Amino acid sequence: MAIVTGNGGATTTVEDLSGFVANFGQDNINNGGQVVFAAGEDTAGVGGIYLDDGVLVATIADSRGIFTNSFFLPSINEAGTVAFRAGFDAGGEGIFTGSGGAPTPIADSTGEFKTFGAPLINDAGTIAVVASLDVGGFGIRIFNGGFKGTVADDSGPYMSFFRLGFNNSENVAFDAFLDAGGRGIFTGPDATNDKVIAIGDALDGSTIANLQMGREALNDLGQIVFWAALADKREVIFRADPDSDGDGVADIVDECPDDAAKTEMGVCGCGVADEDTDSDGTADCEDGCPEDAAKIEEGMCGCGEAETDTDGDGVADCVDECPDNPQKIEAGDCGCDVADEDSDGDGVLDCDDDCPDDPDKDAVGQCGCDVADSDGDGDGTPDCLDECPGDAGKTAPGACGCGVADTDANGNGVADCNDSGGILLEGSGGGPCGAGVGLAFMITLLGLSGVRFRRIVRQ
User: What is the pLDDT of residues 36-62, one digit of tens each?
Assistant: First the structure.
C-alpha cells in the first residue's frame, strides 16, 4: 500500500505504507515534501502519527505509551512540526505538537477544555482547533504556548462548527451551521459581516443549494476553496477571493486592498487619491502648488505668483528689488540703475562721492578733488587759496610779503616796511601851484632816522 501522485502519466510514490494499515484521507504534506499521516501498524492494536521525509519514517506519537489508538487528521507546517489530537489511556484527550521527539502538550481536558477537534498549525507554531468547554459550549480556539483566544463560539449566531482553514496571518475560515438555520462559510464571529458565502446565495448564474469547505482550504492570500451544489443541479469547486475594502475587486488583483477608492497605487500610493485639483497634469500629492496650474513648486515667489525674471539674472522679480537691472537684486545706496561701486576704496560709494577717484576726499571742498583742503596756518583759508600758507596773519604777500604785516603807522598810504621816515611840508596860497594851493614838501632830516617832522610852510 502506498500514497502516490500523478498527472496522467507514471505515478510517483510519496509514501510507501508497507507495514501500515493506513487511514486514507488522514495525511498532509508541507512545501518541503514532508508527509505526515495517521495509520495503524501491522502490529495488532498499534496506531500512531508518522512523519516521512522521503528517507526515513519517524514516529511522532503512537499508542504504545500514554495514548489510545485514536489518532486522526494531523497537520504539519513548513518547519516540520506536526499538530495532532490524541486520547489518553487514562481517559480524556488533548492536542499536541511533535517533530520526532517527545510530544509537547498544548491543551488537554484536565483544564477548562473538554474535547478537541482536529488541530491546524501554521508556520509560527500557532494552532487553531474546535474545542468544547467543561462548562458547556464550544468554539474555535487559538493556542500558542497557551490559550490565546476564541475566534467564534456557539454563544452567538453559530450552532456548530465543522472544517477549518488557518493561515500564517492567523486568519481563520470555517464551515458552520447557524442557529437561525442554514449553513455557510465564515471568517469571524459576525455571521453577517464575516460571511463569505452561504446556502441560498446567488452564485454563477444560479443559487447555492448546499456547500462544504475542505480542511485547510484557506491559503496565505486569504483565498478559500469550497464545493457547492447549485440549484441548477451543477456541482462546482469555487475559489473565494477576499475583497478587504469591499470595492468589488479581489485583494489578489487589487493593488490597494484596504483602499476602497483605489485598485492601483497610482502616483500617490494607496490611501491617497490621485487628484489633480488645478488640472496641470501633476497629482496634488506631488504638486507643491495644487491650486496653481502654472506651478508645481512654490519657488521663490510662492504659489499663485509667477517666477518671472525680467532681467534674466536668475532672481525672480518677486524678490528682486531691481527687476530691470541684471547687475543688482537690491537697490543699495545708489539705487537700481547705479552700481554700488567705491572706486577709490574710501568707504564712500561713487554715487555719493564727489571725488570718486580721491580716497582722501568725498567732497570737492574749496580746493577741488585731488587737493587737500589743508589750512597750515589755521587762518581759515585753505592752503590752496592762501598765498601765505605759513602766515596766519596774511592770505596774500601784500606790500611787505609773507611774514611781514603791511602796517601803515603814519597813515601815509605807504606801508611801514617801505616808509623810512621824513617831513611833510604843506603849502597854500599863491605858490608855484597857484593861488590858494598849498605846497607840501617832505624834508628828510639826515641823522634823525626814524624821526619824522612835519612843518607847514605856507607861501
Answer: 988 887 666 788 899 988 888 899 999
Termini Cα distance of the chain: 189
Domain annotation covers residue 321 = no
Domains of the chain: total: 2
Cβ(427)–Cβ(439) under 8 Å? yes
- pTM attached to this predicted model: 0.61
DSSP 32: T
In a domain, 185, yes or no: yes
DSSP 326-359: TT-SS-TTT-TTS----TT-SSS-GGG-SSTT-T
Domain boundary, last residue among 240, 272, 287 = 240
Distance CA 281, CA 262 (A): 19
Q: What is 101-168 written as a DSSP string?
A: SSPEEEEETTTTEEEE---EE-TTS-EEEEEEETTS-EEEEEESSSEEEEEEETTTTEEEEEEEEE-T
Q: Name the grid cell of 123.
A: 508556520
Range of the domain at 441: 420-459
Neighbouring CB atoms inside 10 A of 361's CB total: 22
The average confidence (pLDDT) of the chain is: 87
User: Closest Cα partner for 152 from 185, 118, 181?
Assistant: 185
Instruction: Find out whether 240 and 223 touch, Cβ atoms under 8 Å.
Output: yes
- Domain end residue (candidates: 240, 275, 305): 240
Confidence of residue 20 (pLDDT cuts 50, 70, 90): low
